[in-house]
């Protein structure tokens, strides 16, 4: 390590001159901190200037050892140096050295090597739980002192795709191994002692050994190599720019470069050496999916958007075999993908990781509480890039609509994210991404882009806070006159990202005065609407209105903002016979309600050929808003059902996508009243049949959305009892029943099994039951699980369900495990026949079941929850209430479950009482006026 000493000292000056002072103010805490990262910060008295690292991994023995020299600066007087070192890292504590090299805080070149003397160490503590290495000094070191910290260490290489890990693969006839790293979010401490926080940026000068016949890829290009012995080579790499420890990465492998068959002539590509590595058997597939073209087009698009050159001279993209991880390892200059991810003919995932090379590595969030904005920016840029490069075909409408719908559902619950922390972080990032999209629309594409570009001007090789983004965007909108000088993006953004909620806006028109009153309130779907302090929740909302007499869906500049105002009035509305649409294209993440007259004008317009003048996303939004507002109790279901009439002529899958979710939500809610549910199913099927019949003809190379839409249509029609579907399913199922040895395997596609068990004969269902009970152990157990799910969850006849319950619970058949019973309960919760049959089974066999479940409280609790907690009508409430009174004191561990169930059912019963008559009356009137109802085509 000695030969790196002078270089280490010299680059100390470089790092401080580039990085400037590290800011210590705290960013706004949005509760988006990475779930794996401790909130504990290093003290901050000492910061790293640079690292000189020598690593010696042993691929065969799955171990490594190394030495590190860290040039550090004492920001404040202290007698302690604290840095990170994982409990899995074996640090040679007795060999640690700390040397005062005599450079002051200004790093004046004339004052180098003044002292160069040892700083005496008093003791060393390793705090295992916090992965801290605390070095206590005999004396307090003065502020401004620069020192050289030397540490030796060793550790193990694991196979869990975190930190440093080992993997293998078969290439041809040979088994080959590799060693790789994945440092995000805080795994660098598993490899070497360091200041493992995003704000602690410093250059790395690195050497890594490898076996002969292998190559090593690192963040930067190799500068030289030397032989250690006949088996190992030591590679020295060019110094990195200042970077956070999570951006550090390397790969030692025998993967080879995929031949480049096409070239883009752009000079920005020529200045960067981009290579793709993979096992040899994958090369042809990657070439066929135009891997180089996709990477280079994406690279240029992102570079152009950011207006900032790629900071490194090379970029290695790796298809890593047998790589099991949630997301790629986005090391700076070295990105590791799963093979399946890189072999898709798509742009989004490539764009997302390339965007991280700029936002994440070149500029980095200061702390984990700011990583939501980093992820949101890269997500927005990636989506925007992919949309531009493939005209949106890659997403099939999933962006922004799918992520928008998911956060609508989550944030409209009484208790969002009550159980899943990871989901909470994802939805906060998704919402922030949608807020950025809103700014992109309302500020204008160029203004928004210039504002983001200023991040690089201000924070290159440094860190940033969330508020830095909003401040720079504010400066740009004021410069371009896109926002009143008294207003700020900071205020607008804060009103959105600091609430785990979303608003709903109601537009009430005064047709005589040609004005409209806009009011906002918290959007809640889940009842009761008793969220505390909801009256205090207000947002900055862009008022963007499209009028029927001028259907302009290209102008998204707000006519005004609702500045956390409960209510505002707008003028210049169209004539009384013309509708308006607020928030077209889901510019902001909020649903919009209208007065009944405006809704009906929209519904009538959508039933004409002119509906195509309204863009696809806006048509989807109108339908989605109407149904969700009706479900929430803010809109009559008669109006919401009017909004579905145009669907019989709608062929765009993006508009259809929310329909299936709505059918499921509403269908389950009205399932307890079979007469209404059957009418509803027939109505929706009537909308679907023309679409499905058009989709029956498959085409070669058809788009994925067409296959998905066909599958969804068929699934619903089968579930609704569409005779052609049932007959086809029974015909296919018969092939299995006639097999000489049906245990050998299932020749029936999964899509046919549920319709047979739902509407087929008892004989067909019993055949399925025998297959589950006699399922061979050598076959995949997931097949048995699916079969059991359909046996329990699909039947419309209670005798099938009772048969299954008798066998599994009362008889205790040894072919069924406790996990099977949990699965059965879960599946019975999906429809009223299931949970009402389970309730009657419990009621009639109470004593026997209590004995069976005496020491199985989890099963008992699950039984009570499923059988008593899903009813939605007054009849259901009366049934459960009667059981509760009769068996009071006998519910044991499920006492709180039954009490909570009664409260929920009472609330749902109110909903049913208010809405079921409206839904049924609308359906009856529709069938009366429409004539042919297709009822003859359904098994009722």
UniProtKB/TrEMBL annotation:
Domain Aminopeptidase N-like N-terminal as annotated: residue spans: 48-246
GO molecular function, one term: metallopeptidase activity
GO biological process: proteolysis
Active site annotation, chain numbering: 353 (proton acceptor)
Record localization: Cell membrane
Membrane topology: Lipid-anchor; GPI-anchor
Cofactor note (record): Binds 1 zinc ion per subunit.
Cofactor(s), names only, from the UniProt record: Zn(2+)
UniProt domain ERAP1-like C-terminal: residue ranges: 579-906
GO-annotated cellular components: cytoplasm; extracellular space; plasma membrane; side of membrane
The EC number(s) this enzyme carries: 3.4.11.-
Peptidase M1 membrane alanine aminopeptidase domain: residues covered: 296-496
EC class: hydrolase
UniProt similarity note: Belongs to the peptidase M1 family.
Record's protein name: Aminopeptidase
UniProt organism field: Chironomus riparius
Lineage, top ranks: Eukaryota, Metazoa, Ecdysozoa, Arthropoda, Hexapoda
């Amino acid at each position: 390590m000695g030969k790196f000493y002078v270089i280490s000292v010299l680059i100390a000056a470089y790092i401080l001159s580039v990085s400037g002072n590290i800011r210590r103010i705290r960013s706004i805490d949005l509760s988006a901190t990475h779930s794996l990262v401790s909130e504990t910060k290093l003290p901050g008295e000492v910061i790293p200037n640079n690292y000189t690292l020598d690593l010696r991994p042993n691929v065969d023995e799955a171990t490594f050892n190394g030495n590190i020299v860290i040039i550090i600066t004492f920001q404040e007087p202290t007698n302690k140096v604290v840095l990170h070192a994982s409990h899995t890292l074996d640090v040679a504590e007795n060999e640690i050295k700390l040397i005062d090299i005599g450079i002051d805080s200004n790093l004046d070149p004339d004052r180098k090597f003044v002292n160069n003397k040892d700083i005496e160490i008093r003791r060393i503590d390793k705090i295992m739980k916090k992965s801290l290495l605390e070095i206590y000094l005999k004396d307090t070191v003065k502020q401004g002192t620069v020192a050289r910290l030397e540490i030796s260490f060793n550790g193990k290489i694991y196979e869990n795709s975190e930190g440093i890990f080992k993997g293998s693969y078969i290439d041809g006839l040979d088994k080959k191994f590799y060693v790789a790293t994945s440092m995000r979010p805080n795994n660098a401490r598993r490899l070497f002692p360091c200041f493992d926080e995003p704000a602690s940026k410093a250059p790395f000068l690195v050497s890594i050994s490898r076996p002969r016949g292998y190559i090593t890829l690192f963040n930067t290009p190799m500068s030289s190599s030397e032989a250690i012995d006949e088996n190992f080579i030591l590679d020295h790499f060019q110094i990195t720019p200042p970077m956070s420890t999570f951006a550090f990465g390397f790969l030692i492998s025998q993967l080879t470069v995929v031949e480049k068959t096409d070239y883009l002539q752009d000079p920005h590509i020529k200045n960067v050496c981009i290579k793709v590595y993979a096992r040899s058997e994958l090369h042809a597939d990657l070439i066929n999916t135009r891997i180089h073209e996709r990477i280079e087009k994406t690279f240029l698009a992102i570079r152009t958007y950011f207006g900032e050159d790629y900071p490194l001279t090379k970029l290695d993209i790796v298809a890593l075999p047998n790589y099991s991880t949630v997301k790629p390892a986005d090391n700076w200059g070295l990105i590791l993908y799963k093979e399946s991810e890189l072999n898709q003919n798509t742009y989004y995932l490539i764009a997302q990781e390339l965007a991280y090379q700029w936002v994440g590595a070149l500029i980095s969030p200061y702390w984990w509480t700011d990583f939501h904005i980093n992820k949101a920016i890269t997500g927005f840029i990636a989506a925007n890039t992919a949309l531009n490069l493939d005209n949106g075909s890659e997403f099939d409408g999933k962006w922004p609509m799918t992520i928008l719908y998911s956060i609508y559902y989550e944030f409209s619950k009484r208790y969002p994210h009550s159980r899943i922390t990871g989901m909470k972080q994802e939805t906060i990032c998704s919402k922030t991404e949608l807020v950025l999209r809103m700014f992109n629309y309302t500020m204008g594409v160029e203004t928004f882009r210039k504002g983001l570009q200023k991040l690089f001007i201000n924070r290159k090789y440094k860190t940033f806070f969330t508020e830095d983004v909003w401040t720079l965007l504010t400066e740009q909108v004021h410069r371009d006159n896109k926002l009143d000088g008294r207003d700020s993006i900071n205020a607008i953004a804060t009103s959105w990202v600091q609430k785990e909620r979303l608003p709903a806006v109601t537009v009430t028109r005064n047709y005589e005065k040609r004005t409209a009153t806009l009011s906002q309130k918290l959007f809640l779907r889940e009842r009761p609407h008793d969220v505390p302090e909801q009256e205090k929740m207000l947002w900055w909302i862009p008022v963007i209105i499209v009028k029927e007499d001028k259907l302009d869906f290209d102008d998204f500049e707000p006519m005004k903002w609702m500045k956390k105002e409960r209510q505002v009035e707008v003028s210049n509305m169209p004539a009384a016979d013309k509708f308006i649409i607020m928030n077209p294209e889901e510019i902001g993440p909020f649903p919009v309600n209208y007065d009944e007259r405006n809704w009906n004008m929209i519904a009538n317009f959508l039933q004409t050929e002119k509906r195509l003048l309204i863009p696809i996303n806006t048509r989807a939004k109108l339908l989605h808003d109407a149904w969700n507002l009706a479900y929430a109790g803010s809109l009559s279901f008669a109006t919401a059902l009017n909004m579905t009439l145009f669907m019989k002529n709608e062929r765009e899958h993006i508009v259809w996508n929310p329909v299936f979710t709505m059918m499921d939500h509403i269908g389950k809610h009205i399932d307890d009243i079979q007469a209404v549910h059957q009418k509803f199913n027939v109505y929706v099927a009537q909308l679907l049949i023309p679409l499905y019949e058009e989709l029956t003809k498959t085409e070669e190379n058809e788009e994925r959305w067409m296959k998905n839409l066909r599958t969804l249509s068929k699934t619903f029609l089968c579930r609704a009892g569409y005779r052609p579907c049932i007959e086809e399913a029974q015909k296919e199922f018969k092939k299995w029943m006639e097999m000489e040895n049906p245990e050998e395997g299932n020749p029936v596609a999964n899509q046919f099994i549920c319709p047979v068990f739902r509407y087929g004969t008892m004989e067909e269902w019993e055949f399925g039951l025998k297959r589950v009970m006699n399922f061979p152990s050598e076959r995949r157990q997931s097949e048995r699980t699916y079969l059991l799910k359909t046996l329990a969850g699909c039947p419309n006849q209670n005798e099938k369900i009772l048969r299954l319950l008798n066998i599994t619970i009362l008889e205790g058949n040894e072919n069924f495990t406790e996990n099977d019973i949990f699965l059965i309960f879960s599946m019975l919760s999906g429809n009223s026949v299931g949970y009402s049959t389970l309730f009657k089974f419990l009621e009639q066999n109470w004593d026997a079941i209590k004995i069976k479940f005496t020491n199985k409280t989890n099963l008992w609790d699950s039984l009570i929850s499923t059988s008593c907690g899903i009813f939605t009508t007054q009849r259901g409430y009366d049934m459960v209430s009667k059981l509760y009174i009769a068996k009071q004191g006998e519910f044991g561990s499920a006492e709180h479950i039954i009490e909570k169930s009664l409260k929920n059912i009472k609330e749902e019963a109110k909903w049913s009482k208010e809405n079921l008559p409206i839904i049924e009356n609308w359906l009856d009137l529709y069938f009366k006026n429409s004539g042919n109802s297709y009822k003859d085509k359904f098994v009722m």
